[in-house]
Amino acid sequence: MAGFVIDLILWYKENRRDLPWRKTKDVYRIWVSEIILQQTRVNQGLAYYHKFLDQFPSVHHLAAASEDAVLKCWEGLGYYSRARNMHHTAKYVSHELNGVFPKTYEGLLKLKGIGAYTAAAISSICYNEYRTVVDGNVFRVLTRIYGIKTPIDSAAGKKKIEDLAHTLNHGHDKGTFNQAIMEFGALHCKPKLPLCTTCIFKDACWAYVNKQVDLLPVKGKKIKMKHRYMFYLFLEDRNNKTIIQRRNNKDIWEGLYQFPLIETETNISVNKLLALHEFNMLSGNQECKIISERRVKHQLTHQILHLTILNIQIDTIESVKALGYQIVPISNLDDYAFPKPLGAAIGE
């Protein structure tokens, strides 16, 4: 095991990517990077990291911002609960902790939006606490090298990998080990087309020696996807105004803005949609002209969204004002944070 760790650290020092959060131990910047990189690839997250810090350079700046400003900055990154939790935590750290983040794993765990993985990453990188991170990259590297076939989505599988990773992380720089093994999984021991022939561990890798690289790690459960059929009405009147509302229910895209929505249990034709009583209510029982129709299939972790975005011309928006929507000039839509599929439709 000692040889594995030494070789891994040497590989990391020679091959690691030049990323800005690796040049600092500032807890705010590490926290921002860790939250952004949850569910986000590094290439995409890098631009958002710079954008976020430009707009909110300190925890106090983030705490003082409005939720709308935070969500607008996050627009397009997805998993918006991350942004709302960051905003909540920033206000707590700024107002209750005088801007100083907790310096221990246990203290970090008490902050909203910080789970075991993120707390371990921050505490090990910033404070060299003996904590080990385990993500998809770590699961993949260790199951392949050590030939672990226990499903990684089982309690037993997770514990086995966590215990092994923690045992391996015995050097003086805990944060470097964590970053090294994740980087090796991201760049070399990839999910598909891993670089086995040039791998420094190929002679000792159980999966490579036994020709089972593509079979590890093992996953026991299959995610059951829920299909949703959502029709968005981008209404546009003669004065170039439209109506929007904020999603405040406990559902996807909470806190973001949307056009009037009709959700159906099954996929229906546009003609059937136009005949619905709900459509007539949302359009103010006015004559409607469909300018464009855009269909988008958008996949989330547990849901597949079948979106139909209709750009509809009506006489006046004022007749639907009583429905609780906000009337805005179409030219001002960029001021509001929309889910990515709707934002793309607006930009066309």
TrEMBL record:
Binds 1 [4Fe-4S] cluster. SUPFAM superfamilies: DNA-glycosylase, Nudix. GO terms for biological process: base-excision repair; mismatch repair. Keywords: 4Fe-4S, DNA damage, DNA repair, Glycosidase, Hydrolase, Iron, Iron-sulfur, Metal-binding. Residues 36-187 form the HhH-GPD domain. Pfam families: HHH, HhH-GPD, NUDIX_4. InterPro entries: A/G_AdeGlyc_MutY, DNA_glycosylase, HhH-GPD_domain, HhH_base_excis_C, HhH_motif, MIG/MutY, MutY_C, NUDIX_hydrolase-like_dom_sf. Its cofactor is [4Fe-4S] cluster. CDD domains: ENDO3c, NUDIX_DNA_Glycosylase_C-MutY. It comes from the Bacteria. It catalyses: Hydrolyzes free adenine bases from 7,8-dihydro-8-oxoguanine:adenine mismatched double-stranded DNA, leaving an apurinic site. GO terms for molecular function: 4 iron, 4 sulfur cluster binding; 8-oxo-7,8-dihydroguanine DNA N-glycosylase activity; adenine/guanine mispair binding; metal ion binding; oxidized purine DNA binding; purine-specific mismatch base pair DNA N-glycosylase activity. Its EC number is 3.2.2.31. Adenine glycosylase active on G-A mispairs. MutY also corrects error-prone DNA synthesis past GO lesions which are due to the oxidatively damaged form of guanine: 7,8-dihydro-8-oxoguanine (8-oxo-dGTP). PANTHER family: ADENINE DNA GLYCOSYLASE (PTHR42944:SF1). Belongs to the Nth/MutY family. This is Adenine DNA glycosylase. It comes from Saccharicrinis carchari.
